[in-house]
Amino acid sequence: MSATTFAQHLLTGISLGGAYALIAIGYTMVYGILRLINFAHGDIFMISGYFMIFAMASFPWFIAIPVALIGTVILGVVIEKAAYKPLRSAPRMSIMISAIGVSYLLENLATYLFTAIPKAYPEIPFLKKILTFGGITTSLVTLLTPVLTVVLVVLLMQLINHTKIGMAMRAVSKDTEASRLMGIKVDNTISMTFIIGCLLAGIGAILYFTDRMTVYPYSGSLPGLKCFVAAVLGGIGSIPGAVIGGFIIGICETFLVAFGYSTFSDAFTFLLLIIILLVRPTGLFGEAATDKV
Amino acid sequence: MNKKTRNTILNILLVALVVGLLCFFQSDTSSHSYAISIIERSVIYAVVAVAMNLLNGFTGLFSLGQAGFMAIGAYVTAILTIPVEMRDSVYYMNGIAGWLHDLHAPMVVALLIGGLFAAAAAALIGIPILRLKSDYLAIATLGFAEIIRALLAAPMMDQITNGSYGLNNIPGFKNIFQPVALAVICIGIMVLLINSSFGRAFKAIREDDIAAEAMGINLFHHKELSFVISSFFTGIAGGMLAIYMRSIDTKTFQVMLTYNILLIVVLGGIGSVTGSVIGSFLINGGQEWLRFLDDDTFKIMGVHIPLFRPGFRMVVYSVLLMVVVLFWRRGIMGNNEFSWDGLFGLFKRKKKKVSAGGES
Amino acid sequence: MAENVLHVENMTMQFGGVVAVNNLSLDVNEGEIVALIGPNGAGKTTAFNMITGVYAPTNGKISFKGEVMLENHPQGKMVKNYLGENDGMYDKTIVKTPDQITKLGIARTFQNIRLFKSLTVFDNVLIARHMCSKANVFSATFRLNKREEQANREKTLELLRMVGLEKEKDEIASSLPYGKQRRLEIARALATEPELLLLDEPAAGMNPQETDELSEFILKIKKDFHLTVLVIEHHMELVMSISDRIYVLDFGKLIAQGTPEVIQNDSKVISAYLGVQEDE
């Protein structure tokens, strides 16, 4: 493999990793606060792709993007209120089944409304601009993705560490009951978590689907699971961890495909998951929790 | 007549009714092919659902690897039962591995071997992943099922699994009694296990693992046992599914299959064997009865319903799952088992309510 | 001199920078009732959790009837912030799991009752008999162990009769009143046929009358089952009336030991409970 092809693949991998990182943040934040694997997160990401298709059909891109993002956020909040909130005090298995149920519903609903045939994803003209330098050809979106990811993560970290709502989020994820007693509006904080998670998933969807060019009802399920693995790899609950996990998985996957092992690229992710859980269950940046007996 | 004799008589009547019904369907397979197909699929799904319940409902281990273990059972059974003379045509693209070409086994033996392969895979994977906590275990088993699927589809396995072409020409069931009898045996054994002292130990782990350990129950040993046994029966059910479908490929065993079984378990009631069986018949039967939902030419009293078109049935299904999860968390049976006493008790209570309502 | 049952040597438990139990040594001899007391957070329950194998001690050795169950030495990071004033450092690592320790003959109850909540009272005790059954999964499934199963059921019934829960045997464990749940937990522990019984605050949340009944109950089961008892308790009346010897822990350290009379008059114990007066 020549240096140029290597650089080309690396760039593709970093770009894919950036999109994964944005989705993984949603998983890690929701898990941190509700101790729930939001199985539906990948499907919210898929539906966001469809929202963009319809928004682009009637608006220019600079209006369509906010419309699609707002749609995604509303969907996420509605799901939280309808499917997770009633189960706050239920056993963890129930709430996990509910999450799987939402995922199942979104996939079937998408199949029903939009058919299983992949739909073409609209081109956002400036994102597709081709750039060439030093033998590497790439589109703007490939370069933009990692940059945007890093910028968003820095902003998010500022929000979490230096604002009141950020402090509330940290408090609720440490101890929900104590936060409630301290006067934190737990439900609002949880909604805020979903809003941020879905907003990032929506941005991730634009970047991801612009590169893939089609959306179909199951296009969220596997990337969703991979992003969860990214979140676990980084240490669940840790935002920088999720980002680094996303990049690692994106790069590994791209190189596996480049070397001709595309059949194993999905299996590899899960193998990685099982290995992390065995060697370091808390992930790269996670903190260990002990059970009180 | 005391309760015991009444229940015995009712049980005999029920068995007679079921056997009679099966004989009736079997007497004219061509005109009842529809019903036979539903029953066969229902009993196969019932076996997987009960096996899943053994893990999720009774041992408290949330596993989502069912599709993977079914795939193992299905492929082993299929490879062993495809008639030797058909093999060259089944594997016409890649050819079949020499050592495998003449390896053939009768149906029941093939199913058992399929189950053993699934159990062996479970034993191996269980050592690392059963230490994980609830939701991590779910995602790890889900991932494991995907790994199995990728391995079965891998180009290196082409001469064994026929890669993406899948396997066909699998001999089907000779009559409806075969799958039903197999399912009854499998479920029967699992019920016996659940009611044995090991079954109680499993429940103890579900209730409180720290207390269970303090009572001398080796957590890992028992979790592994439950996982291996559940996977064994899941593998057998996978083999039965291969025989039922007559042709399989790796797409059959996607995550969706696991979710469908989860739907059955949740609908029937987590922790109820009879619930799982009832759930399986309702879901599989419903899939056929509700076919009209997918039919865009269907009319109710001459009125065309605009919602009905392909895919609507699955939407109704998923809404149903959500309704059960949110509003009816216990499912049909909760964690109780069906009994005649319970059934009559239900009627009596209703009657009392009605009469009490009348008096006031 | 009665035979030594439990021997704890320099047991230390460190959670990060906190030393929950510091260099604790204690002995329990056959047929004794020994109490472990101390203010809240003194490390009593942590000591119990180490003896029963829930936690592996950072340093120290625990043996049961001469057999070493747990032995550990500070490792890695722990060495650096190890604060124990240890008399001995141990070089071996022996860690038995809780189920193995139960099989050796140590049974326990929990501070915050841990019953199998949605199972019946009868099943709660019967589950504890699982450990004693010799059947493997095959013979148990196909009912080839009928006689053993029958014996276990009879034994369970007998135990329930002895603790006075026979009438409630088919009730769901979580529906029992608090005092009966405590009794059920003890009955369940007894079903494992222990030689040493560890009771973690058995009188917590009980009224004076229930407490009196409890102390009689403990004395009775001790006699009937030939038990040795180690008990954690805050209720001083109970402790003083039943125990042969008392160990007092404060901030993870042993501050006093002896007979109830000695402890009652120990100035260190009094100050640990009432606080030290500052001289100014």
UniProtKB/TrEMBL annotation, chain A:
PANTHER family: BRANCHED-CHAIN AMINO ACID TRANSPORT SYSTEM PERMEASE PROTEIN LIVH, HIGH-AFFINITY BRANCHED-CHAIN AMINO ACID TRANSPORT SYSTEM PERMEASE PROTEIN LIVH. It comes from Jingyaoa shaoxingensis. The keyword rRNA-binding does not apply. This is Branched-chain amino acid ABC transporter permease. The chain crosses the membrane at residues 6-29, 36-55, 95-118, 130-160, 189-208, 228-249, 256-279. The lineage of its organism: Bacteria, Bacillati, Bacillota, Clostridia, Lachnospirales. Belongs to the binding-protein-dependent transport system permease family. LivHM subfamily. Its main location: membrane. It is found in: Cell membrane. Keywords: Amino-acid transport, Cell inner membrane, Cell membrane, Membrane, Transmembrane, Transmembrane helix, Transport. InterPro entries: ABC_transp_permease, BCAA_transport_permease. It is a multi-pass membrane protein.
From TrEMBL, chain B:
InterPro entries: ABC_transp_permease, LivM-like. Keywords: Cell membrane, Membrane, Transmembrane, Transmembrane helix. The keyword Membrane applies. Signal peptide: none annotated. It comes from the Bacteria. It is found in: Cell membrane. It is a multi-pass membrane protein. This is Branched-chain amino acid ABC transporter permease.
From TrEMBL, chain C:
Transmembrane segments: none annotated. Residues 6-276 form the ABC transporter domain. It holds the Pfam family ABC_tran. The keyword ATP-binding applies. One of its GO terms (molecular function) is ATP binding. It comes from the Bacteria. InterPro entries: AAA+_ATPase (IPR003593), ABC_AA/LPS_Transport (IPR051120), ABC_transporter-like_ATP-bd (IPR003439), BCA_ABC_TP_C (IPR032823), P-loop_NTPase (IPR027417). CDD domains: ABC_Mj1267_LivG_branched. Keywords: ATP-binding, Nucleotide-binding, Transport. SUPFAM superfamilies: P-loop containing nucleoside triphosphate hydrolases (SSF52540). SMART domains: AAA. The keyword Transport applies. This is ABC transporter ATP-binding protein. It comes from Jingyaoa shaoxingensis.
